[in-house]
Amino acid sequence: MSTTVDRATPSTRRRRDVLRAYVALTKPRIIELLLVTTVPAMLLAQRGIPSPWLVLATMVGGTMAAGSANALNCVADADIDAVMKRTKRRPLARHEVPTRNALVFGLALGAASFGWLWLTTNLLAALLSVGAILFYVLVYTMLLKRRTAQNIVWGGAAGCMPVVIGWAAVKGTIGWPALVMFGVIFFWTPPHFWALAMRFRDDYERAGVPMLPVIATPQQVSRQIVVYSWVMVAWTLLLAPATSWLYAGLAVLAGAWFLAMAHRLHAAVRRGEHGNPMRLFHLSNSYLTAVFVALAVDSVIGWPVIGLPF
């Protein structure tokens, strides 16, 4: 019978732990979802497959920009992260990284993302990435998050920027389909995040963060989730003129699926039940992925677009 021995020296293990802590500051799981929306936006802008180098460069720059925003968010929210069960294992809450180092790391990533995107794509995409970082940190994290229940509604706009950056990287401009994709994610964010906040309501209340589930009844929250879900699904159909019937059909099917789950949650809450909001939270990730994968497939296949009705 044999055992596996970790032959790494204490200093090597320490370096690995430090590296993992800095990676954790960037919130990789959030970045993955952002990239899922960026690439389809580029495919739609090209109405085909752009240069693989351009796609890779945009993804690298977008990863650095998102990592910068998330690291700076960790710095600003270190106090509340330490008292919330969901976030208490983040690096700054556990004092795995000095606050000053995390701040420098976040700023350096932001500067690197700007320089990289300007060098490899264009100035517009680079400026949009800086704007997204500043909006997320200054507007959402430092201004809205601790002051209003509308924090995630307006603050969520920062998470909508990757599709605009992807479009700009290909076109050098901001077209109306990019703004529609921005709107899809904008209206998707409240149902996604409020479902999570319903599950961790006590966490947010303990931290003094006025997320909607903290200041409103569960029924009011679930009703708002249904309203935003309907607007979101309707908004996805505004992309139909820039796509073919393939995307339109898949968007309708995915939207019907999501709406059914949102109404199921609301119905359960109205009956006084818990309703399992985390099911909707996880479903929202799958829904957004499905919509943008449909957009990507439609763009690559290149069937004739439906076109504008005028």
Total DSSP helices: 14
Helix content: over 70%
Secondary-structure class: mainly alpha
In one word, what is the shape?
globular
Contiguous uncertain segments of 5+ residues: 1-5
Task: Report the sheet-strand fraction.
Answer: under 5%
pLDDT averaged residue by residue: 92
Largest sheet: none
Q: How large, in whole angstroms, is the Cα Rg?
A: 21 Å
SSE topology string: HHHHHHHHHHHHHH
Number of strands: 0
Q: What separation lies between the terminal Cα atoms?
A: 75 Å
Topology:
Blueprint: H1 10-25, H2 28-46, H3 52-76, H4 78-81, H5 99-120, H6 123-144, H7 151-155, H8 161-171, H9 176-199, H10 201-207, H11 212-215, H12 218-236, H13 245-270, H14 277-301
How does this structure look, described?
It is a single chain. This protein is mainly alpha-helical and 310 residues long. It is built from 14 helices and no strands. It has helices at 10-25, 28-46, 52-76, 78-81, 99-120, 123-144, 151-155, 161-171, 176-199, 201-207, 212-215, 218-236, 245-270, 277-301. Helix 3 packs antiparallel against helix 8 (161-171), helix 5 packs antiparallel against helix 6 (123-144) and helix 13 packs antiparallel against helix 14. It is globular, with a radius of gyration of 21 Å. It starts with 9 loop residues before the first helix and ends in a 9-residue tail after the last helix. The model is unreliable at 1-5 (pLDDT under 50).
Structural features:
mainly alpha; 14 helices; disordered N terminus
Short description:
It contains 14 helices and no strands.
